[in-house]
Structure formats: structure tokens, C-alpha cells
Amino acid sequence: MSSKGYKYMSLAGRDFREKTENQITDEFTSILKDGVHGMCFSPYLEHQKPGDKISDKQIIDKIKIIKPYTKWIRIFSTTDGNERIAKIAHDFGLKTLVGAWIGKDHDKNLDEIRSVVDIAKAGYADIVAVGNEVMLREDVSEELLINYIDMVKSQISGVPVGYVDAYYEFGDRPKISEVCDVILANCYPFWEGCSLEHSLLYMKDMFRRATKAANGKKVIISETGWPNIGTKFWGAVPSRENAVKYFINTYNWAKEDNIEIFYFSTFDEAWKVEDEGDVGAYWGLWDKNGNHKYALESMISEVNSDTRE
Fold it and tell me: Which residues belong to the signal peptide in this entry (predicted)?
């Protein structure tokens, strides 16, 4: 078949070989300008980390920056000020995937659960996630996590309840998949050392495995992304070029196959260096000061102007 006029991208993604850097940046900017399904929301300022109290002002300031470019945001916690993010996001017309953070502290977990239930009952959660990568970190037992999920499901209605973890955990733990209304799978070719050239194929297989484990339930990619600075991880190399290409391939595939994806992340986060090494601070589409890292400023200014009118 002739490639002339062929409208679908290849299994491996866009062929960038004959594209200039400006053309690639232009394509990235066009996708961002059109808006994506969802983004993982980082509320913290440069000097903050999880556990610190966050203010309404910093939440509002950051949501104003990202609002033109996404329909949903994902929230990771419902305490220490994070419980106000969902209402503020709804006030700005955004939908929310609201997460109760589950860790080793049982009393803190119960606080998160009570808060996420209150948020859902108030109408500010469109999807609820009970825990993020809890099995991956081995913070609690599988049985206790299922009890937490059931606890939330018993108190709210009309809102899908799921759990977020690495895609393969759902196949390894069918009891968790069974109790979830929706499967929320984190898919990171980068963290499995995959080169940029093969990363889209790799992510498609991650999604396929999560879909198989879901057994007919909806699967959402709750996190994926690529850092632009830091030490390479096996074949995965952080760079501006690779981050932009990964974003383009991700959202062209999402559009073509109708996949709902939450991109990680909105803003660079310095606190993540402690757990993830030097790459941890550079996953954002915006830098720590709220400046676009990759987009053409002329097109972005046009979007910002439209939202002010």
C-alpha cells in the first residue's frame, strides 16, 4: 500500500526523521493547544513536599496555568490542603480523579479515606482512586488494601472507584482488579529502561496487559511521561527532544485509539529527587516557576489570551 495519504500513524509512532526541531515543537504545541484528556496535578511549591500544608492560593495559581490545556486533573492526596483541590478544579470547569493516599500509617490512611468520601459525596470527585502504587511499595497487605477500597465503595454511589498501580500489578493481583470499578494503570516505558524509539510499542503492550487483567472493565492510563533532564536509565535517555517526541506519540495514539491518559506531570517537582534520583525533578510540562518547557510561546500566548476574554 502506498504511504501517500495514509492517515494512521505506525505502531511505533510518528516518524520524526525528516522533521526539523521547529516542526516537532510545532506539533507538540498544537496538541497541547487543542487540549489533552488529563494531567497529574502537582500543587507543591519549590520548597514544599508531601506532608506540607498547601494553600488555596497556590492551588488556584497553578490550576489557572493548566486549565486551557486539559479536561481532567488527577489529585494524589486528600489531606494537608489537598482536599480543597477538587472543589477548586470543579469551580474552574475541570473534572477530577481524586486519590486517597494510602501508606504505612493506618490512622493517616483512614483520614485520607474519610476525606475522599466527603469530597465524593459533595460532588467534586468524578473518579476516586484508593491508593497509588501501594502494592509496588509494599506499604500494606493486599487484603488491607482491598478492605480500604471496599470501605470507600460502601460509602459513595454513582462515582467509579479504582486503584492506581503499575500496569502489571493488576494481572498479578486479580482480587484487586476484581474489586475495582475501573483499572487505573501507570505505564512508564522510561522506568523499564526502554529507548524512545520503542517506547510507544512498549506502552501499547503495557496497556494491553492491563486491559487483559481488567476483564472487560474500563482501563485508564493514570500516569505516563518522560523527563527532559537527568541520568539515563538503561536505554531510556532524558532529553528535551525525547520528552517532546514521547508526548506527541502518546497523544496521537490516545486520539487514534480513544485511550484516556493522565500525563505526568504538570510541573517540575524538586522533592522527587530523593526517591527517583536527578530525573525526578524534571517530569513537568511546565518548570517549577510555571513556564512552558517545550511549547511555542506565540501559540501558547494565543490560548492564554482566549481564556482571558
Answer: none
DSSP 10: B
Q: State which amino acid sits at residue 280.
A: G
Closest CA to 97 of 142, 37, 148: 37
pLDDT confidence of residue 300:
61
pTM: 0.94
Q: What tens digit of pLDDT does each residue of 38-52 get?
A: 999 999 999 999 999
- Alpha-carbon span 78 to 46, nearest angstrom: 20
Grid cell, residue 283, equals 517530569
Closest CA to 251 of 30, 18, 4, 96: 30
User: Rounded to whole angstroms, how far apart are CA atoms 51 and 139?
Assistant: 17
Which residue intervals of the chain are DSSP H helices? 21-34, 56-66, 85-91, 106-121, 134-137, 142-153, 167-172, 174-179, 199-214, 240-257, 273-276, 297-308
